[in-house]
Each structure stands twice: as C-alpha cells, then as structure tokens.
Design brief:
The chain is α/β, with parallel strands linked by helices. The chain has two domains: about 150 residues, serine acetyltransferase, domain 1, CATH 1.10.3130; about 120 residues, 3 Solenoid (UDP N-Acetylglucosamine Acyltransferase, domain 1). It contains eight helices and 18 strands. A five-stranded parallel sheet has the order 1-4-7-10-13. The chain has a five-stranded parallel sheet with strand order 3-6-9-12-14. Strand 16 and strand 17 form a beta hairpin.
Length: about 325
C-alpha cells in the first residue's frame, strides 16, 4: 500500500514539473505576474457600489447601519474613487497607452468619471421612464429598478461607456460582460445609446461596439445589432461595422440588423425575425408574412384553419 502511495506521489510530482515547464514558453497565457491587470472581482463589487450611487434608495450595503444617508453616500463615493482609481492605474500600466505618469492619469480619469455621474443618472432616469411607459406589466417604477434586467444592463452599460469614452482599457468590457453574464444582454461599452432606451425582456440581445442608437428606441429579446462579417479580424478594429438606429424605432423579437452602412430610419418598426442588411427609410414598417403552418389530426394533415382578419404580416410581442 505504501509503495502505491509513493508511486502516485512521484507521478504527481512529475506531472507538476511538466506543467510548470509549460509556463516557460513565453506565450500570453504563460504570464505569471499577479496584480498586473484589473481584478474582475473588485470591478464586480464596484458595479454594485456604483448602482447604489445611481439608485441610492434601492441598492444598499447591508453590512452597515445607516443613520445619515448623505454621510453614507459621501463615504461610498470616496470608496468608489479609491478602488476605481487603483484599478484604472493597473489597467493603464498594463496597456499600450501607458504613460510615465500613470498615477496622475488614473486620478484625472477617476475624477472625470465621477464628475459625469449626474449626467449618467439623468440618462438612466429617461430609461426608467421609457421602461415604465412602455411595459403595461410594470406595476411601478420601483419594480423596474429592482427587477428588470433591461434597466440593469443599460445602467451598467452607461457607466461602462463613460469609462470607455475616457479611454480606460479593459475595465469597461469587464463591466458589460458582468452584466451580460447576469442578464443575457450583451451590449458593448462602445455602443452609443440615446435617451429613453427600453429593452423589454432582453435575453439574447447583442449590440455591437460601433452601434449608434437614437432616442426613444425600444428593442425586444433576441435582437442582434451586429456586423455583416468579422472575417477581417483585427484589420476591422475601429472600423464602423454595426448599424445606426435612428429615433423612435421599435425592433421586435429575433430581428437581426447588420452592417455599418445599415441605417434604420426614424419612426420605423422592424417586425420579429426580420433580417436586414440595407438602409431602411424613415417611417417604414418591415415585417414577415405569416408562415405557412400545417395542422395534423388523427386522419392526417388538414388545411390551415382560417384566421381572423386578413393581415398578411405579424409581429411578436410578449
């Protein structure tokens, strides 16, 4: 028995040595230095703290008793500033845009981000109003704030977009991917989104980096605002490859709108499962004709039953 244990111990030791040798190949994945890139766990905690600053009466830290909300918020702002500044400094130091004064650059970015927080909150207020006005299932605005994944994803994206505009590496993408993993809504922090943006249900939505969305836009689950092709890889970095959605547009479930030259004109409605790769004129209603269905009874297939009305197109709303 002892011999078997020794043989297994020796085998594990040999395997460990082999794996450790594999780290010496000088690949990106072989990096051993810790604390040289932003910490995902700390950024996730920062998202929670920032949400408490955006919605102070709805997201709370239950580790502390609060006697004076404003004093508590002042302390929270300092806490956010401290941790965000450190993470930004790490991100800058590890990026191609690193400068000699990383500390000063991180402090300036942190201050600029916090200065812009009231404007972010003003945009989020319009998103809240759009969600409440646009969903008859919403019983209150508090319900939207607490329970709706769409508002959560939009809020995190607006925070991440502010950092993206300040040219902070990596952190904005970590933030939106945290929201993506929690809600199923994938919005790149580079996407430009106007006021009164409403995501209903939300699961499976994809919004690409160079997408531009105007005011009063509503999109449903499964919508993709993407690129026609990414075969060019890094050669397409920075190239406009995602669509523009103008003001007052509604996009129903499952629609795909692709390409940097694709513009959906204002006041248009895009029906479910539409596949669009070319510009759409303002005020256009795009829809798919009713699919042909077969109905089977005990004697075999029967004709499709008559449907009320003669509308040859359909939209999909839950």
């Amino acid at each position: 028995m002892k011999d078997k244990a020794e043989r297994f111990e020796n085998r594990i030791h040999a395997l460990a040595c082999n794996i450790l040798r594999d780290y010496g190949n000088e690949r990106v994945i072989d990096r051993l230095e810790m604390f040289t890139q932003p910490d995902r766990q700390i950024i996730e905690e920062l998202i929670g703290k920032l949400l408490r600053l955006v919605f102070p009466g709805y997201y709370r830290d239950y580790n502390y008793r609060i006697y004076n909300p404003k004093n508590s918020l002042a302390a929270l702002i300092e806490d956010v500033a401290f941790h965000l500044n450190r993470q930004i400094a790490i991100a800058l130091r590890d990026s191609a845009q690193a400068s000699e004064d990383v500390t000063g650059a991180a402090e300036d970015i942190t201050a600029a981000f916090l200065e812009g927080l009231p404007e972010i909150r003003a945009y989020v207020e319009t998103d809240l109003q759009a969600a409440y006005d646009g969903d008859p299932a919403a019983s209150s605005k508090a319900e939207v704030i607490i329970a709706y994944p769409g508002l959560y994803a939009i809020t995190v994206n607006r925070l991440a977009h502010a950092l993206y505009q300040l040219k902070v590496p990596l952190i904005p993408r970590i933030m939106t991917e945290c929201a993506h993993s929690k809600t199923g809504i994938d919005i790149h922090p580079g996407a430009q989104i106007g006021r009164y943006f409403f995501i209903d249900h939300g699961t499976g939505i994809v919004v690409g980096e160079t997408t531009v969305i105007g005011d009063n836009v509503k999109i449903y689950q499964g919508v993709t605002l993407g690129a026609l092709s990414t075969r060019g890889g890094q050669k397409l970095h920075g190239v406009r490859r995602h669509p523009t959605i103008e003001d007052n547009v509604t996009i129903y479930a499952g629609a795909s709108i692709l390409g940097g030259e694709t513009v959906i004109g204002h006041d248009s409605v895009i029906g479910s499962n539409a596949f669009i790769t070319h510009p759409i004129a303002p005020g256009t209603r795009v829809s798919i004709k009713n699919q042909e269905l077969q109905y089977k009874n005990g004697q075999g297939y029967v004709l499709q039953p008559e449907l009320p009305g003669d509308e040859p197109e359909w939209f999909y709303v839950i």
